[in-house]
């Protein structure tokens, strides 16, 4: 049985949050520097590429990337325009109100290159002195 009190749980939770924030910042910096992608843009490419038809409704993407409707719309617009377009929008034929975004060939190529950077940064962060052990300890004690 776990004998931690609420203060100890809070301290462990804050420690995990700090670790996650540090890794997010490093991922954001590396993806931006090497591929011109924000972390949210990377996630958008990833989520869309994982679907069978390589497309998602903007509303679905909004939920997956955790952005507002207007923020997702701006993100997709940037990614349509930037670098000859990593994404393309399409109106849903069955429901003219629905808008889909699909990943382009350029977007797939960009994602594959960015995925390599993402994995390298994440692995380096997890191998950082004591970080893996600290994570395991914090998770076990929560």
UniProtKB/TrEMBL annotation:
SUPFAM superfamilies (UniProt xref): Winged helix' DNA-binding domain (SSF46785)
Q: Which SMART domains does the entry mention?
A: HTH_MARR
Biological process, per Gene Ontology:
response to stress
Q: Name one Pfam family in it.
A: MarR_2
GO molecular function list: DNA binding; DNA-binding transcription factor activity
Which keywords accompany this UniProt record? DNA-binding
Domain spans labelled HTH marR-type? 1-142
Q: Cite the PROSITE patterns for this sequence.
A: HTH_MARR_2 (PS50995)
The record ties this protein, via InterPro entries, to: HTH_MarR-typ (IPR000835), MarR/SlyA-like (IPR039422), WH-like_DNA-bd_sf (IPR036388), WH_DNA-bd_sf (IPR036390)
Q: Which domain of life is it from?
A: Bacteria
Annotated protein name in UniProt: MarR family transcriptional regulator
């Amino acid at each position: 049985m776990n004998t931690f009190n609420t203060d100890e749980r809070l301290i462990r939770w804050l420690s995990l949050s700090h670790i996650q924030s540090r890794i997010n910042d490093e991922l954001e910096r590396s993806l931006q520097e090497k591929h011109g992608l924000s972390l949210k843009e990377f996630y958008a490419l990833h989520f869309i590429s994982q679907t069978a038809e390589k497309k998602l409704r903007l509303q679905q993407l909004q939920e997956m990337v955790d952005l507002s409707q207007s923020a997702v719309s701006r993100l997709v617009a940037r990614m349509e325009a930037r670098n000859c377009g990593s994404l393309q929008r399409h109106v849903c034929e069955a429901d003219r109100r629905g808008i889909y975004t699909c990943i382009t060939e350029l977007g797939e190529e960009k994602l594959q290159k960015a995925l390599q950077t993402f994995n390298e940064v994440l692995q380096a962060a997890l191998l950082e002195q004591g970080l893996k052990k600290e994570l395991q300890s914090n998770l076990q004690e929560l």
